[in-house]
Structures are given as structure tokens and as C-alpha cells.
Amino acid sequence: MVLADGFRSGMPLAPHDVVFNAIGDADRCAASLERAKAVLAASGAPAINDPERVLETGRAANAQRFAGLPGVVMPRTERLPRSVLTATRLLEHGWTFPLLVRSPGHQGGRHFELVNEPDALAAASARLPGDELFAIAFADTRSADGFTRKYRVLFIDGRIYPVHLAVSIDWKVHYFSADMSDRADHREEERQFLAGAGDALGAPG
């Protein structure tokens, strides 16, 4: 194992046949990914999870890329310095409320807030760490029953492999906090999704 941040040009590497990059967060670990590129260049071995490709997967970059795909609705996402993340600036540049603000590089719903009104933006931003924050358009994806559903899948060679379904009354959906353990109907819905993701998701609209 090589710690990318500690690697310097000319350092010897142990014998190996492949390089597996375990750094996966482009927003939080860009500098480490650049170091990992240097490790890969010194190695000459094939790479799994190439750091050059991972660097392209920041949240804002993904939003811009996915927005161009047919059939995909991708909320507008911009990474902005705190100095320009004001309600006045956002409204002047075509943003509407409610919207989401989020600190880069955090997962599991941490440091991630829904802002319903322009007057609430300053207080919400102040609760979040970091010199830059994401502004994200809010997409209300609630179903007719009032619940929001989060379908997690893997796409491999064009096939869909379901991982789980989380059903929540809250807009911020994570499996660990969703309404699953105490709702047999939601667990049955997930079972059907796991048995056939394509049938559960339906045909393209």
C-alpha cells in the first residue's frame, strides 16, 4: 500500500502488477488524487479506478455532464465561494427558492441543508463548514403518497444492478434514516425493486 500524499518523485515502489486507487471523492481529495497520478506514472502498471478519471467526478462537474443525457433531469449545481453565495446574487443569476446548500466532500447527509426562503440562506450557510459551498436547485421528487424514494443502483456494461430502495417522509433520503424498519409495506416495495429494478422503475418517460 502507498499513501499518495506521502509519495515523492523517485521513491521506489514495491513489486506489483496493478494499481488500485482507493481515493474516491474528487471534491474533498483533489490534491491527493493528483499525487495518486504521480504514483501511477511511476508505476507503469494498469490502474483500477484511475485517479485522472476520478478527478472528473466532482459534484458540479457531474451535474453539468449528466444534464446533457437524454431522459435525465439534473438539478443545477454550482460550487461557489461564500463571498458570492448570497440570496441577492443567486436571484440575480436565475436561482429560485427553495434550494439546497451543501459543503463539498461530505457524505451521509452531513452539512447539507434545505433553504426555503431567501432570508434563510445566510443562517443556513453559516452552519456549514468550508470556504466554498454548493448551491443546488431543489427538485421535489415526492410521489403521490407524499414519500420520497431513493433508488440506489449500479450500472455495469449497460445493465442495472439494484442495491437498495429507501422510502422517507423527509426530503433528505438515506437508507439508515428512512422509513423502512417500521414499515412492512416499504420493505415489500424494496423487495420488489431488488427482484426486478427495471419493472419497479418503469419504462423511460
Structure description:
The protein is an alpha+beta fold. The protein folds into 3 domains: 16-57, no CATH class; 74-137, Dna Ligase, domain 1; 148-201, no CATH class. 27% of the residues lie in helices and 20% in strands. It contains 7 helices and 8 strands, in the order βαβααβαββαβββαα. It has helices at residues 30-43, 51-54, 59-66, 87-92, 121-126, 184-195, 197-201; strands at 19-20, 47-48, 77-81, 99-102, 112-115, 132-137, 148-156, 159-168. Strands 3-6-4-5 form a 4-stranded antiparallel beta sheet. A two-stranded parallel sheet has the order 1-2. It has a two-stranded antiparallel sheet with strand order 7-8. A hairpin with a 2-residue loop joins strand 7 and strand 8. The protein is globular and about 60 Å long. The model has no long low-confidence stretch (mean pLDDT 93).
